[in-house]
Write a structure and sequence with these properties.
CATH topology of the largest domain: Jelly Rolls
Helix content: 10-25%
Largest sheet: 7 strands, antiparallel
Number of strands: 18
CATH architecture of the largest domain: Sandwich
Order of helices and strands: HHHEHEEHEEEEEEEEEEEEEEEH
CATH class of the largest domain: Mainly Beta
Length: 331
């Protein structure tokens, strides 16, 4: 409107008269300095729109120990995943799942459900870090942030805020493992010092099972037995990875191996199972399932199926996921 320029001129003249007639030169510099500081602070805050809670003092760099993050930015994670094919049918496990679920077109689960067979993505959030040592969030950080490479990292205020990790889906179960039933997988180790294999189990909705279960590891094709580990099925959690650690195999690189699981003491109703995916994605081995005890019978091979397993290697007294070492070596 034409009146606005005239009003601006009048306001500026009014400010000039106030400063020159009623304030000393020292007071003018003081108030001018305060105004500049307020303007700088306002700039830093307003530049974060709409994520004002991500503000921190630039003089003291933000560390993971500072609990930044109250759900801001999870809409960006939802926007990213909403662009995926079949997003409406996809399951995601996320920190602050309610805030994330508000924007996500698919299904949002609590992060504790990350091992469910249907979960395709896992979301970590900055607020998880810096908690007391025995907090369960640290387990997720060890499992994902320290071992895996995210598909997407979202930044707010020049800080990494959200990590999105893809996850293989193992929707099928092999059936109860008891008596002569054996379930196994062949694979090729990509590095030396193979020292741990994690297997994805299920125990039928946390059913209280109680029987011995045995993990066997063989070198192929010689069938030389390298490790035998016995555990009780009551140690198996539902839809969770169980670790089988053994003496590191020094020259394991490029060699083929077979592991399988059986439980002769288990019986129907008192047994666990393992998860697998079909069709499978692993090209260097096959899944085997035998109900007669002869695991390597050609009829036991499940074409185009992969058992839920992960390989770990010991380096510098620390276990490294195969995927992590592959990416490190490629850099």
């Amino acid at each position: 409107m034409p009146v606005f320029p005239a009003l601006v001129i009048l306001i500026v003249l009014g400010i000039e008269i106030f400063f020159l007639r009623f304030l000393t030169k020292k007071q003018i510099f003081y108030y001018l300095g305060v105004a500049i500081l307020i303007a700088i602070q306002a700039y830093f805050v307003l530049s974060l729109h709409p994520y004002y809670l991500a503000h921190y003092n630039k003089i003291f760099p933000a560390a993971f120990a500072h609990h930044l993050g109250w759900g801001e930015g999870l809409n960006l994670a939802a926007d990213y995943l909403n662009q995926k094919k079949d997003a409406e049918k996809t399951y995601v496990a996320s920190w602050y799942q309610e805030e994330f679920g508000t924007f996500y077109l698919g299904h949002a689960f609590h992060l504790n459900a990350r091992n469910q067979g249907r979960v395709r993505y896992v979301i970590l959030y900055r607020n998880m870090f810096g908690r007391v040592p025995d907090h369960w969030a640290n387990d997720v950080i060890d499992e994902y942030f320290k071992q895996r490479i995210p598909e997407k990292v979202i930044q707010i205020n020049n800080l990494d805020y959200i990590w999105i990790y893809p996850k293989k889906i193992y929707e099928r179960i092999a059936g109860e493992i008891y008596n002569e039933v054996k379930v196994g997988q062949t694979f090729v180790a990509k590095f030396d010092n193979l020292a741990r294999i994690d297997v994805l189990f299920a125990n039928y909705s946390s059913r209280p099972n109680n029987a011995d279960l045995v993990f066997h590891l063989f070198e192929m094709p010689s069938r030389k037995e390298l490790a035998t580990i016995k555990i009780n099925t009551k140690e198996i959690e539902d839809n969770a990875w169980h670790q089988f650690a053994f003496k590191p195999i020094d020259n394991s690189k490029d060699k083929k191996y077979l592991f399988y699981i059986d439980s002769k003491e288990s019986r129907p109703g008192n047994a666990v199972t393992v998860r697998y995916q079909e069709p499978g994605e692993y090209s260097q081995g096959e899944m085997y399932l035998s109900r007669t005890g002869d695991l390597l019978d050609p009829k036991s091979k499940k074409a185009n199926a992969d058992l839920g397993f992960e390989l770990y290697y010991l380096q510098d007294d620390k276990f490294y996921l195969e995927e992590t070492l592959e990416i490190q070596n490629a850099q």
